[in-house]
């Protein structure tokens, strides 16, 4: 009976997915890139690359490839609690990463930089996130050219401190200082832990007119392209260039909050990631 139910569920998911693609086709979208994660073991390195070590935002985790793998049709990014020496440790260092004597958490971050990037399109991810204290899962994009934040950032899915976020960032006249267009949704409004126990679908529609961010077809944030010029002398729009995507599970740091009594290992599970474009946008896929 369990096997039958699983097969029925799998058929239902495929049916819903096929229906969505047909609906997208009616709007002129065609699939240009996807990873369904239908393989067991390591990620497809023709599509993804890994980040290594302590990377950003004073986060607690050490990124390493071993914490990401494909299993039963999903990508698993797993955060673990550990106690191992930090190979980059330097006594007396003022660098937040090198100042840590030990690694207390490991996780994974993967991206398509240098492999695949896109300008405009419909980006879709089906995933399940854990909303425990200190967890900071994200699906986001960065522009291929320019220094952050003047290269542009789009947080299609981001979660921390009981908030689901949909953010867009541009540069300012101060280096490393972003101007954010941010919207949040309290997890309690969505159903809290019960909501988090299920898979949900995030979507970005990005064209020459606007960037719109959705969760389960609920519009979370929309910003017109005319409002997305960097606030510096050059005034460039960082979303008139290709962006690459990132998937990661961070812990703590500048935004993630206190870990508290969160149970580890902890997972961010991704069923698929797909990119659709219209005929006039396909030339902007790289």
From TrEMBL:
<dbReference type="InterPro" id="IPR013320">
    <property type="entry name" value="ConA-like_dom_sf"/>
</dbReference>
<comment type="similarity">
    <text>Belongs to the glycosyl hydrolase 16 family.</text>
</comment>
<feature type="signal peptide">
    <location>
        <begin position="1"/>
        <end position="20"/>
    </location>
</feature>
<dbReference type="Pfam" id="PF00722">
    <property type="entry name" value="Glyco_hydro_16"/>
</dbReference>
<keyword id="KW-0732">Signal</keyword>
<feature type="domain" description="GH16">
    <location>
        <begin position="22"/>
        <end position="281"/>
    </location>
</feature>
<dbReference type="InterPro" id="IPR050546">
    <property type="entry name" value="Glycosyl_Hydrlase_16"/>
</dbReference>
<protein>
    <submittedName>
        <fullName>Family 16 glycosylhydrolase</fullName>
    </submittedName>
</protein>
<dbReference type="InterPro" id="IPR000757">
    <property type="entry name" value="Beta-glucanase-like"/>
</dbReference>
